[in-house]
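R.M. (postdoc): so does anyone remember the format we settled on? I'll just put the structure tokens first.
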């Protein structure tokens, strides 16, 4: 379990998240699943400061094809609408192309989350065509639309490389063709909240097009979850208590019904099941059967959702689901 979960219990002025749920039925999943999220590895070419799973170049964990096949069988049985592929850098898993092609046969909505920079590497450039061929929705993290701010989060030169990849994606049709969706995610670079999403999207679109000729579909502004590398930053900088208090003060009960954990299940590289990717980072496994292989071939079961104080990050403001 992430040590920060233990730290949460010392924040006695912040009530347990479960106490804030307006209707206790929202502490359970829905009777169906919409999204199967697959974290297919911790390998990454970058070491981003806000990464909640501590991905990086020295990590070796990766999902096997056997676990992928269990996930695909489950997705087919449950008539999953969306398969959401993440990492690390999912491109660094050698079975990603296989997973994309098989996922596309099962559902019409396949997402790959990318840091963009990885797609400049000669070993992974070809995946842009794989994405386009299979009409994969690309969700890319772009911490800011200027180099100075983004390079502080991702490392020197990362912004220029990301811009080069975005231009390649535009040239392929991403962000322009209705079938090739290019969405962006903005995460704050420190212990503060994101600006208004609508205003930030407008600003991003204007600046990226004016400065670089880049087009994209939507921008999502997310609250950083206090897990992993970002959680360590909060602890080490003495900001954990203040940040958690801000999240609690921004709690919006109207977001609870639509929390992603209610219609989603997250599978780690080893097949372990979690209610969401943040519980995965915290080591909070699902209540009930623990592995994707355990639930494949069986009717879907409603389950209690494991919750803790990090869940306030998904219910602050307009919510992050």
């Amino acid at each position: 379990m992430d040590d920060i979960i233990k730290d949460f219990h010392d924040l006695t002025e912040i009530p347990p998240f479960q106490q804030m749920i307006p209707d206790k039925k929202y502490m359970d999943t829905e009777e169906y699943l919409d999204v199967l999220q697959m974290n297919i590895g911790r390998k990454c070419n970058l070491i981003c400061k806000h990464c909640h799973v501590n991905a990086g170049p020295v990590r070796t964990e990766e999902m096997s094809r056997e676990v992928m096949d269990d996930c695909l069988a489950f997705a087919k049985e449950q008539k999953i609408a969306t398969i959401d592929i993440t990492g690390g850098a999912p491109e660094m898993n050698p079975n990603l192309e296989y997973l994309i092609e098989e996922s596309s046969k099962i559902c019409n909505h396949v997402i790959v989350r990318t840091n963009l920079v990885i797609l400049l590497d000669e070993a992974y450039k070809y995946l842009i065509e794989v994405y386009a061929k299979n009409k994969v929705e690309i969700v890319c993290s772009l911490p800011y639309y200027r180099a100075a701010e983004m390079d502080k989060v991702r490392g020197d030169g990362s912004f220029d490389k990301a811009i080069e990849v975005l231009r390649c994606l535009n040239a392929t049709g991403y962000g322009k063709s209705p079938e090739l969706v290019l969405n962006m995610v903005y995460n704050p670079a420190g212990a503060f909240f994101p600006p208004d999403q609508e205003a930030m999207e407008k600003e991003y679109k204007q600046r990226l097009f004016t400065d670089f000729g880049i087009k994209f579909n939507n921008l999502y502004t997310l609250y950083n979850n206090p897990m992993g590398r970002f959680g360590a930053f909060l602890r080490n900088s003495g900001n954990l208590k203040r940040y958690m208090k801000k999240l609690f003060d921004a709690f919006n009960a109207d977001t609870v019904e639509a929390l992603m954990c209610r219609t989603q299940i997250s599978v780690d590289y080893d097949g372990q099941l979690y209610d969401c990717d943040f519980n995965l980072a915290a080591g909070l496994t699902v209540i009930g059967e623990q592995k994707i292989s355990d639930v494949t071939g069986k009717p879907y079961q409603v389950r209690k959702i494991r919750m803790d104080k990090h869940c306030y990050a998904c219910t602050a403001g307009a919510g992050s689901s």
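R.M.: ...and that's the designed sequence above, right after the tokens. Also worth knowing: The radius of gyration is 19 Å. The chain has eleven helices and eight strands.
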